[in-house]
Amino acid sequence: MKIATYNVNGVNGRLPVLLKWLKEEKPDVVCLQELKAPQDKFPEAEILEAGYKSVWLGQKSWNGVAVLSKKSEPIISRKSLPGDDSDEASRYLEVKIDDLIICCIYLPNGNPVPGPKFDYKMQWFERLQAHAEMLITSRKKVLLIGDFNVMPTEKDVYKPEKFAKDALFLPEVRDAFHDLIGQGWTDALRHLHPDETIYTFWDYFRNAYQRNAGLRIDHFLLSPEVLPQLKKAGVDKEVRGWEKSSDHAPVWIELE
Q1: Average pLDDT of every residue of the chain
Q2: DSSP label at 46?
Q3: Measured between alpha carbons, how far is 52 from 68 in angstroms, rounded to an integer?
Q4: Which residue segments constitute the domains of the chain, with CATH numbers given?
Q5: What's the rounded mean pLDDT across residues 126-147?
Q6: Cys-Cys crosslink for 249: which of 135, 145, 155, 240, Cβ 3.0 to 4.6 Å?
Q7: Which residues are catalytic?
Q8: pTM exceeding the 0.85 threshold for the entire prediction
């Protein structure tokens, strides 16, 4: 079973890229982030024609998350993180597919620092930690998947010194990610590729993709019940080089 995550950076504008990638790679399940489309403008028909059932949370201009499934229909169990009823951002979608609980995540960026956007990021992280602890203690097969907007270590950023004051790399942000991991989750890509240079995002500016000046900010965190099934993990880096592509590349794992 192949599960992927892809920050599409605008699902309608990048739809030809998304459909081409789906046709070529044929993942079984896909988590999408940054749809940038209202609820009624999600391209459900085109994605269904490509062979995928879908559920989604849209939002005009910003945010937005979706889960696509080639076989079983995703059953929504939660449309937001608990802990803040006033938070209307479409950033979290939790579904059940067969015996898996899949949590599609688009964690806030947090820049500029300091400021309300960074405060929101850290509050969101706290809510994620609290909910993730509940999920992992359920002893079910759970996957936290998506764009976490965190580079966990210096190995995950092409120039650590350049990002010393960036909200994606501040010590307290990395500590929050490591605290989350400390609950018992496994970072799938690092588990299988502990020493490799792996990036999932390349900025549009300064020929970042051509120079491989990237960041690893898209992650798969697996509960202990899923980990024994993990066989492969990787990044479809070449997709980032396609015409009119997102600044992220699709990331994937294979489960036995």
Answers
A1: 98
A2: H
A3: 6
A4: 2-255 (3.60.10.10)
A5: 98
A6: 240
A7: 106, 147
A8: yes
